[in-house]
Amino acid sequence: MNDFARSDIPTYVQRDATLRVKIIDACGMTCTFCHNEGTPVAADNRRRIAEAFTPRGRSGRVSIYTGSNGATFLPRTIFPDEEFTDVVARLRAAMRLAELHLTGGEPTLHPRLAELIARGREAGYRVCMTSNGEQGAGVLPACAEAGLDRVNFSVFGTTPAELAEVQHARYRNTARAGDKIDALRESIAVCVEHGIVASVNLVVLDEAHIDRVHRVLDEYSPMLSVRLLNSLDHGQPSLQAIDRILTDRGAVAEAHYVTAGVSGARTAYRLEDGRRIFVKRIRPVRLPDTCVGCRFNNGSDCQEGYYGLRLYRATDGRWMVGVCLQRMDLCQPLEEFLHGSLATEITAFRADEYARLAPLAAS
Question: What pLDDT is attached to residue 276?
């Protein structure tokens, strides 16, 4: 995966303008590699103080960084009220944002998802979502009407056995996994039917998952955009598996897409059969002040870099703004963030990096 350094491939640069919002903590899956947007699993930690938050509990769900990321609050469900509209509108104006990206947990389990989307649109955002498709078939038509622009579907298995394998041992039931896969397929079909842009995200853990990726490429890529993501928790084996998939498919790199101010980047590849896929890449991006003294600021421990802004609602009612899954102790209450040095640092860094990278962009 070294194509990112190649100068003969055109590069397209845009400024970061995304706010990720964790709208719900609930999820019907128990994936063993879940980071849960950095927060502890609420159901497993309601009676615990922050110093005793656990990454694994009776629910079977995990939050892989809990216990080491200094999280100080539990998340609660965000509802589509005037306060939500005001908060995201203020952040949009202060940070020059354009995209609201809804996350969880699993957003399709939110009881008022379409209303949240409408509120985001009212605040001036393009609204997108990451989903495993759990309840998508039932809620996506209303979401389309509310103005949902895009859904990134996370695919964790193409067969019941594959999906069951990456779930908690208590839930490795192939019948249950089969139902989840059927729900995902129905959700994708509803997106296509209602004009919502749909893409498929595949987290590649290691070489044992290569066959799964090939099956997804064969099933979905003719009609959807497919993006391969490395697993933050699996490191080099995950990257090596993606390299092998690209080799197997005779993939040729065509273009880089870089978002200035954050670590996320994509490379587009053309496959032998003419289809196109994307590979997400994490650039070694660090905030110039905030990240300097961080214990994870080295070539192996910082798994995501600075990925962008995240918004949470704590169980005590506070709106919290975060900048790192591995350092949830850096989260700040909304007012502190808006009036503090961190917001200024992020805005200046984004502008400086765009000025540096823009000359590399294809004309």
Answer: 87
